[in-house]
Amino acid sequence: MNGRLRNPGVDRVLMLAVLCLLVLGTLLVWSATSHRDDLTAGDPTAYLRKQLVNVCIGLVLMVVVMATDHRWVRIVAPVVYLASVGGLVLVLTMGTTVNGSRSWIDVAGMSIQPSEFAKLAVVIGMALLVAERKEGRRTGVGSAEVVGMLVIAGVPAALIMLQPDLGTLLVLSATVFGVLAVAGAPRRWLAFLLAGGLVGGVAVFAGHLLKPYQIDRFLAFTNPDLDPRGAGYNTEQARIAVGNGGLFGQGLFHGSQTRAGFVPEQHTDFIFTVAGEELGLVGAAVLIALLGIVIWRALAISALSTDLFGRVAAAGIACWFGFQAFQNIGMCLGIMPVTGVPLPFVSYGGSSMFAGMLAIGLLQNIHLRATASLPTRYARPISQVTRGYHRTRAGLTPQR
Questions:
Q1: How many CB atoms lie within 10 A of CB 230?
Q2: Cα separation, 184 vs 189, whole angstroms
Q3: Which pLDDT belongs to residue 238?
Q4: Which residue in 34, 63, 343, 349 has a CA-CA distance of 20 to 30 Å to 18?
């Protein structure tokens, strides 16, 4: 392509959406914890300050990844993957059990959840494998590549299953499926994985391989009135809290269910109920729209990427954020079982925040490299940029 190269820049829409989510999430965490003396030990701003620290660390991590040369990102990818697997092994040997899942490990006074970082590690590991084997070639992704990608995903998935952390496993499974689809895996493999997942889920449930509390949560999901004071309590109270919000909500820091502390884990897994009750349908819709913008921009960056690694990694991150957000919001509304996954960029917690911001940094890194390689006359919306090009597995090539 001829023409002067444009000056690369960050994806401002993505950055603005993420910053809005961080601000909104911090306010919701503050509202959910400021009245809880059992959590704050009399300091209503304790969790606010902790979340602000998490946000600041996350922003630093994002900038570091964003500013790193893309070649180093690919070189470091195997190290990141091995580190995440090592963290999952440490959890099983010396981790802390919370809510029935051995998912946490104490590091330098902080509780770290390695499974959150495993999501990103699996995405970049699978993207690196398919890029190293197929980038620049015209052949499609074959069975050997699919098996290799499944092995990369299977090791962390098995370790997460041993914790057990069913919510993270579901998110990871959906992410892996999305990565395989974007990478160009044969349709027979995708159909086989879907069928295998359904059969495996039925076999696990029928074979009584789940923990009793996991079975109770699933039964409560199918019928919340079955045990309203036990396994169905979370779902029932979450739906009441969201319903109390009405159109415009009861006002920030004024939610009746939130102030009374009826919804458990409201600053982490059930943070969406605070938005629903205090900000109403309008506020909750804004939150969902911001998450939708993040997913849209991730898919747009994937479409714009000129290399296979960037295209697959960006699409995998979009699948990760999309399914996790759907799972979290769905369990607050009673349309998904309670599995305990945080809402990206909104829920309280360092591990989820750090992993999510690392992923945003990677998206911006991919965007910077893609926009730097396009002439200024193509610096238009992606639908227009790609109109004059043939899409191949090696990237975008201009039409003759």
A1: 11
A2: 10
A3: 87
A4: 34
pLDDT in tens, 357-386: 999 999 999 998 876 655 544 444 444 444
- pLDDT value of position 373: 59
Give residue 210's pLDDT: 64
Q: Residues 201-222: pLDDT tens digits?
A: 777 666 666 666 666 666 666 6
- Rounded to an integer, what distance in angstroms lies between the CA atom of residue 301 and that of residue 87? 30
Contact 351, 312 (CB under 8 A): no
Average pLDDT, the chain: 83
Nearest to 283 by CA among 32, 48, 20: 20
- Does the residue 17 lie in any domain? yes
- d(C-alpha 182, C-alpha 184), whole Å: 5
Residues in the chain predicted with pLDDT less than 50, given as ranges, are: 1-7, 376-386, 388-389, 393-394, 400
Query: CB of 124 within 8 A of CB of 315?
Result: no
pTM of structure: 0.85
Quote the radius of gyration of the chain (alpha carbons, Å).
22
CB 311 within 8 A of CB 141: no
**Amino acid of residue 55:** V
**Number of domains composing the chain:** 1
Q: Give the residue from 157, 151, 211 showing the smallest Cα distance to 180.
A: 151
Would you say residue 27 lies in a domain? yes
Q: For residues 299 and 218, what is the distance between their CA atoms, to the nearest angstrom? A: 32
Alpha carbon 322 to chain centroid, angstroms: 7
Q: Is residue 6 included in any domain, yes or no?
A: no
Within a domain: residue 1? no
